[in-house]
Design a protein that fits this description.
Layout (H helix, E strand, L loop, with lengths): L2 E2 L2 H23 L4 E7 L3 H17 L2 E7 L5 H13 L5 E4 L9 H7 L11 H8 L8 H12 L8 E5 L6 H10 L3 E5 L6 H6 L3 E4 L17 E4 L21 E2 L6 H21 L1
Parallel strand pairs: 1-9, 2-3, 2-4, 5-6, 5-7, 7-8, 8-9
Helix pairs in contact: 1-9, 2-9, 3-4, 6-7, 6-9
The chain binds NADP nicotinamide-adenine-dinucleotide phosphate.
EC number: 1.5.1.5, 3.5.4.9
Family: Belongs to the tetrahydrofolate dehydrogenase/cyclohydrolase family.
Catalytic activity: (6R)-5,10-methenyltetrahydrofolate + H2O = (6R)-10-formyltetrahydrofolate + H(+); (6R)-5,10-methylene-5,6,7,8-tetrahydrofolate + NADP(+) = (6R)-5,10-methenyltetrahydrofolate + NADPH
Length: 279
């Protein structure tokens, strides 16, 4: 039998632990941890993600502030809002929902988030620290994947991990986190030649491409660990999961695998940030 890497179940357990930690923060400091979320523009999927993150805050006893900015917001306007949140002692974590409208310099805005409030792990400084093996809040999706792999006891040291995708929030930090866990890592992207042959060598495959069922089941070798970060309408990810059947060692379902772990990681890092700032 293949092992189901059940992100939904693990996220519920993590939330129960976080609720207890939030109760302690409230009792000790008399204050409630607050995550500020920023949504720019009207993308319905982004609005749904922000709503889900706000609800997760509620479930663990945190508060959230939701800032909604118009589609035409400029970089300067967004930077001004981030500066206000950085300076607000009642706000312990800041989430800027990706992607922002094209006229905005997203990198500049991510990097304007104060490091101690960068609970979604999007700043260059946080990324650099993580890459060097120093303490930092990890980018939420890959950090959630690492938590999931470790929880289920997936052996990482010495394994060949193939990450398909190299985005700043997912593929790149994923590759460095796996490297930090002593995997040998291959990072693939749109210019990679003979992708199928590279995926075929993987002990661990991470799909972070953003194309429905792009990674074919017959590219994946028997006994591999399969992590699908994608989510598309119709409940499919970036990897063709169904035909894999029981011939892989472990796999993340879509939905219910990586998605809930992303949110659980954001909330975990928000609670940690509040503990540090209020402790
Ligand atoms: P992205 O920014 O669009 O990056 C996609 C990556 O895939 C790029 O590095 C791109 O290469 C690569 N790629 C595109 N076509 C390719 C091809 N034909 N062969 C090989 N590589 C190819 O996407 P993202 O933000 O990283 O997201 C990736 C997936 O994860 C999406 O399905 C997204 O929905 C999902 N996601 C899920 C969560 C969650 O919480 N579950 C969070 C974030 C993202 P180049 O760099 O060469 O363009």
């Amino acid at each position: 039998m293949s092992l189901l890497l059940d992100g939904k179940a693990l996220s519920l357990k993590i939330e129960a632990d976080l609720a207890a930690r939030v109760a302690v923060i409230k009792e000790k400091s008399g204050r409630t941890p607050i995550l500020a979320t920023i949504l720019v523009g009207g993308d319905p999927a982004s609005a749904t993600y922000v709503t889900m993150k706000g609800k997760a805050c509620q479930r663990v006893g945190m508060d959230s502030i939701r800032l909604e900015l118009p589609e035409a917001t400029t970089t300067e306007e967004l930077l001004a809002e981030i500066a206000k949140l950085n300076a607000n002692p009642d706000v312990h974590g800041i989430l800027l929902q990706h992607p922002v409208p094209h006229q905005i310099d997203e990198r500049a805005c991510f990097d304007a988030i104060a490091l101690e409030k960068d609970v979604d792990g999007v700043t260059c400084l946080g990324f650099g620290r993580m890459a060097m093996g120093e303490r930092a809040y990890g980018s939420a999706t890959p950090a959630g994947i690492m938590t999931l792999l470790r929880h289920y006891g997936v052996e990482l040291a010495g394994k060949h991990a193939v990450v398909v995708g190299r985005s700043a929030i997912l593929g790149k930090p994923m590759a460095l986190m796996l490297l930090g866990a002593d995997c040998t890592v291959t990072v693939c992207h749109s210019k990679t030649r003979d992708l199928a042959a590279l995926v075929k060598q993987a002990d661990i495959v991470v799909g972070a491409v953003g194309r429905p069922e792009f990674i074919q089941a017959d590219w994946i070798k028997d006994g591999a660990v399969v992590v699908d970060a994608g989510y598309h309408p119709g409940g499919v990810g970036d990897i063709q999961l169904k035909p894999l059947g029981d011939r892989v060692a472990a796999w993340t379902p879509v939905p219910g695998g990586v998605g809930p772990m992303t949110i659980a990681t954001l909330i975990t890092q928000s609670v940690e940030a509040a503990e540090r700032q209020l402790g």
